[in-house]
Amino acid sequence: MVEQKDQGGETLRFEAEVAKLLSLMVHSVYSNRDVFLRELISNAADACEKLRMKSLQQPDLLGDDPDFKIVLSADKDGGTLSIADNGIGMDRTELVENLGTIARSGTKAFLDGMTGGDGSALIGQFGVGFYSAFMVASSVEVVSRPAGSDEAWRWWSDGAGTFQLEPVPLEEAPARGTRVLLTLTDEAKTYAEQATIERVVAEYSAHVPVPIVLRIGGDGVGEKSLADGSALWRKAKSAVETSEYNEFYGHVSGQYDEPAVTIHYKAEGRHEYSVLLFVPSMKPFDLFDPERRGRVKLYVRRVYITDEADILPGWLRFVRGVIDSEDLPLNLSREMLQKNPILDAIGKGVTNRILSDLDKLAEKEAETFEKVWEAFGAVIKEGLYEDAERRDGIYKIARFRSTKGDGWRSLADYVADLRPNQTAIYYALGDDLDAIKASPQLEGFARRGIEVLLLADPVDAFWVRTALGFDGKPFQSVTQGSAELDTIPVAEGEAETDAASESAIGTLAALFQQALGERVSAVRASSRLTTSPVCLVAGAGGPDRQLEKILSAQNQTMPRGAPVLELNPGHALIKGLAEKAAAGGHAEVLEDAAVLLYGEARILDGEAPENAADHVARVGRLLTAALG
Ligand SMILES: Nc1ncnc2c1ncn2[C@@H]1O[C@H](COP(=O)(O)OP(=O)(O)OP(=O)(O)O)[C@@H](O)[C@H]1O
Fold first, then answer.
1. 54 in the same domain as 188
2. Which segments carry the region annotation C (predicted)?
3. What is the phi-psi region of residue 137: left when phi exceeds 0, alpha when psi lies from -120 to 50, beta otherwise?
């Protein structure tokens, strides 16, 4: 990585992803450049909070400067702005790692997946942190001295592929912490003006939990307090404005949307803690990162402890904010964070509260709730199989697409609309809604006016497998077993069909079974179909066919059982074939029909015929015969 060395200084190359991010920053015309200041102030506040926590064990780290603060210094004539904190600071290695690479795997994946150069979409979607400084600065200098260290380092870059590092004399460095100095570009000189800085801090950073002061250069007004650093989450709800919540949400989430739900309360009783949590309105880009980590910040009596405690379950990992405990000890070690009974109890209490607030929202503001569900429903449903205790609560707020209209349906809606004699909740699994809607297995349900839930999220295959049912009704797949449809009356306006005789269908089924051999476990007449001639369903007791497919695609070892081929006795083609079978003879045509219809059923399930060449040869033979 080292390119050159002189007088103790070195030039290092940014990691490829950082270079990509920087070029986006420099070249994209993003309408809201203000956000760089929020990012740098957030970093400064985090650095102070980290040191506050560390000093609990090592009080001497604070020396004679126990009060944390962030100092903004603007020099209008010189066109510079600096953001200085007396926080934890960074040593040489940390400067290289933190300001030369991108640590978060999700960010990397996101960047890799990004095509074109639309940086504004990128910044709009998630906080890009430190590197956003290059939206307004032609060069950035970072001088840092870690708390308790006798060394200080200077990092410098103009954002063009490399950065420089060199040790600096202590008198040129902050006594403790980090100073970021921006040399503003001509278009961004306004950020050296008091009015602009005050406006941006008021909008984005007024509630970071560390005080912020502004120093204006030259013979300016001296020092002015811009934020008092008080903990917003400890204020009474009635004393906080929506705009203040939204601004604080920006700080804790690193996102640029507005929260869809704000949950602010103080729990009293066995455990005492304050909660200020937000449900975002936009999906964080790393929502489906396999680590599934939450980022709720744990505080103990106003002191930041960690955002890695995973207080909330994985299926609430999109929730952002702060939980501040009165009861936990301040010197929480990593081991103490795991399986801590107080933290467990807090996690449970807060989870229940989030569920009940979401339920209330669904009742009072259905539209807002539906947006939340649209963004996070797929994640919340993970709780249905991994959090048995919460299952009923999640059932209550879960919403589904179904064959009944385009809107969202709750399970309660579904159960209220059961057809006479209907005892199960029917669902169809698949990769996308349109494909599921088109599956032949739904036809007989439509004819009887039975609603079918359309489950298209990958997680659906998992929870529905273990679900015991809702309101005493089991969940049943439309492709599973021989659905007991005959007892449910045909819906009004649907004609009874004139079907082939039972014995003729029986003969045809036996011939088909012989022709198909082990490819199918049975062939039988179906009440599941109306317009399609055939479909495939799971064998008796076998798992849902779509679930099998999803699992085997994920390399999970589930042997795929032979399906059942169902025939539609009301379909003209099946009727014709049944008559031929009953009359005897026609062996070759009937064998072709068996193989081709089986292939067709596979195609309708989104699969290819088992033997494409054979399929094509048979179609050719039939068409030639039809011509003759
Ligand atoms: N003022 C600072 N003092 C100490 N460490 C800092 C400071 N600024 C940045 N860092 C370190 O650099 C890292 C990278 O910062 P950056 O702003 O790029 O990302 P982040 O804050 O981790 O994530 P994000 O901003 O996307 O939420 C931080 O995690 C922190 O460790």
1. yes
2. 550-628
3. beta
Condensed to tens digits (0 to 9), the pLDDT of residues 367-394 reads 999 999 999 999 999 999 999 999 999 9
Q: How many domains does the chain have?
A: 3
Residue ending a domain, choose from 173, 195, 227: 227
589: domain CATH number is 1.20.120.790
Classify residue 148 by its DSSP letter.
Answer: T
Structural domain that includes position 336 = 232-368
What's the one-letter identity of residue 479? Answer: T
Residue 468 CB neighbours (<10 A): 9
279 and 191 within one domain: no
Pair 352, 396: CB distance under 8 Å: no
Spell out the residues 6+ positions from residue 532 whose beta carbon is closer than 8 angstroms to its own: 440, 443, 568, 571, 604
Q: What is the pLDDT of residues 152-195, one digit of tens each?
A: 999 999 999 899 999 999 999 999 999 999 999 999 999 999 99
Q: Is 125 annotated as a binding residue?
A: yes
Residue nearest to atom 6 of ligand 1 (CA): 43
pLDDT at 55 over 70: yes
Question: Given 368, 394, 426, which residue is the final one in a domain?
Answer: 368
CA neighbor of 136 nearest in space, from 191, 84, 180: 191
Render pLDDT for 536-558 as a digit per residue (tens, 0 to 9): 988 766 777 777 776 676 666 66
Do 69 and 214 lie in one domain? The reply is yes
Task: Please tell me whether the overall predicted TM-score, pTM, comes out greater than 0.95 for this model.
Answer: no
Q: pLDDT by residue (tens digit) across 451-480?
A: 999 999 989 988 998 888 999 999 999 987
Strand partners, 335: none
Give the residue, by CA position, lying nearest to ligand 1 atom 12: 98
Structure tokens at 242: 């929506």
Question: Does residue 313 share a domain with residue 238?
Answer: yes
Ligand 1 neighbours (beta carbon < 6 A): 39, 43-44, 47, 85, 87-88, 90, 98, 127, 129-131, 178, 254
What does the CA dihedral 100, 104, 109, 112 come to, rounded to 10 degrees?
-10
Structural domain contains residue 430: no
Distance in angstroms (rounded) separating the CA atoms of residues 550 and 621: 35
Q: Map residue 179 onto helix, strand or coil.
A: strand
Give the span between the Cα atoms of 224 and 215, in whole angstroms.
Answer: 7
Asked whether residue 397 is assigned to any structural domain, the reply reads no
Query: What is the token pair recorded at 484?
Result: 């007991």
ipTM: 0.97
Residue 91 is assigned to a structural domain of this protein: yes
Say yes or no: 248 and 203 in one domain: no
Reported in sequence order, the residue ranges of 431-533 that DSSP labels E, i.e. its strands, are: 453-455, 475-477, 522-525
What DSSP element (H or E) covers 5? Answer: strand 2-6
Specify whether 212 is located in the same domain as 295. no
Residue 98 among known ligand-binding residues = yes
Instruction: Provide the 10 A C-beta neighbour count for residue 582.
Output: 15
Residue 404 lies in a domain: no
Q: Which of 41, 48, 49, 40 has its CA nearest to residue 324?
A: 49
Residue 328: partners with Cβ closer than 8 Å, 6 or more residues away: 300, 305, 340, 342, 343
**70: number of Cβ within 10 Å:** 29
CA angle 449, 453, 456 (to 5 degrees): 140
Q: Which atom of ligand 1 is nearest to the CA of 107?
A: 26
Question: How close is the Cα of 411 to the center of ligand 1, in Å?
Answer: 44
Both 20 and 81 in a single domain?
A: yes
